[in-house]
Design a protein that fits this description.
Structural class: alpha/beta
CATH class of the largest domain: Alpha Beta
Number of strands: 13
Distance between the termini: 19 Å
Strand content: 15-25%
CATH architecture of the largest domain: 3-Layer(aba) Sandwich
Number of domains: 2
Number of helices: 12
Largest sheet: 5 strands, parallel
CATH superfamily of the largest domain: Nitrogenase molybdenum iron protein domain
Radius of gyration: 20 Å
Amino acid sequence: MRKVLLVLLALSLAASAAFADATSYPVTINNGNREVVFEKAPERVVTNCDSNIIELMFALGLESKLAGYAGFVEEGCNVSPEYQEKLKAIPMTAPGYITLEVLLGANPDFFLSGYNYGLNIPGDTTGDAITPEELEKHGIKSYAITESLIRVMKKPVVSLNDTYNDLKNLGIIFDVQDKAEQVINDMKFRVASVESKIKDVKGDKPISVFIYQTWNAPDQPPRTVGAQAMPSAILSMAGAKNIFSDVDNSYISSSWEEVVARDPEVILLLECGNANGEERAQILRGNPILQGVKAIKDNKIIVIRVEEFYPGPRAVHGLEALAKALYNL
């Protein structure tokens, strides 16, 4: 029966993708706390920060529009293997967070980023802040990914709907709405497939999970995520629960003592940058503070690259990998 339902879902999604409207310019895009008017499709795009942001462009087949990117390679991060050859053809505008001067030097007409990912909070006038208002003075449109809007407004808890919204909006901006619908529908089908598989194997009570990011050194306070970060949403979709889901924030610092108090059943170690995930897992196993934690006693540590859990098209792969690790699917 489930196979039949998935087939029907696939047919329904395919049908919806076949009838996407073409963009009629000028078009107004709602970007959370502001509206952006596009007189035409952008031609020179610069992206900044994590690889998931430039992957939105790759997923929509818009690599020819990219004039440059910044922000993730120098930290040991990269795009999905399927996009690595495409990335080689795109100039690196800056090795880290881009400055206004460098951005203007790339002569873009569109900046794709996120608040605190490269875009500064609106109203910031310090130094060479890259705000939507400042970019408009130079004739540059900007778009902040939906997940990042939590930094400038109240929004629903993060979910894959944030990425669907970004794909939909970019599809309108660049007049590739058919492609955007195709990507969204493929993601939805894969999510439905995972949820179907885990329905009979997950228990009545969600598995409690501590999400540990390896950005900090092992002797530093642990980095984790609250309810407003995509890893928390992916855990929920996989029938698990982030032990810090009561924190209405995105990326946060905690303490090992707080982790012990919340006693997770599983530790999801997100391998970040150049850190070796398996080596960091071994350090956790030997940490005397954690010896009473259920995840350590049961040796339940899952290691997955952090890029698989960013808000973007690759998040579905993170969901698939997590479900496989949690339930041996």
